[in-house]
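Before the break, one more example. Copy the sequence into your notebook; we will annotate it together after we see the structure.
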Amino acid sequence: MEFKGTKGEWEINKDGSPFEATIFCDELRICEVKSFGTPFNDPSLEERIANANLIASAPDLLKALLQIQFAVKNGNVKGLFHDEINDMDNAIEKALKKETK
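Here is what the structure looks like once it is written out:
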């Protein structure tokens, strides 16, 4: 299996409004996450930041999950290498960080 979406490092726009975040890969806009506090039931600012972090970390999380899937299917869970474990830890940390940078 291969990820068919935009390849590269997905990052959150550093210069955006406090009410929205834009996820970019290089110069390509992936998506926007908004929170205007309007009657449309928008997420809170804290939820918007968490949502943006999760979206930005999606390719990293998928990569780590595919590595673990490969090891499990090949009966080699004990053989997961240090790099794969680091990829997994870094992807989870990116998804769960408290604020955008």
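The two ends are 31 Å apart (CA to CA). The longest strand covers residues 28-34. Try to locate both features in your own notes.
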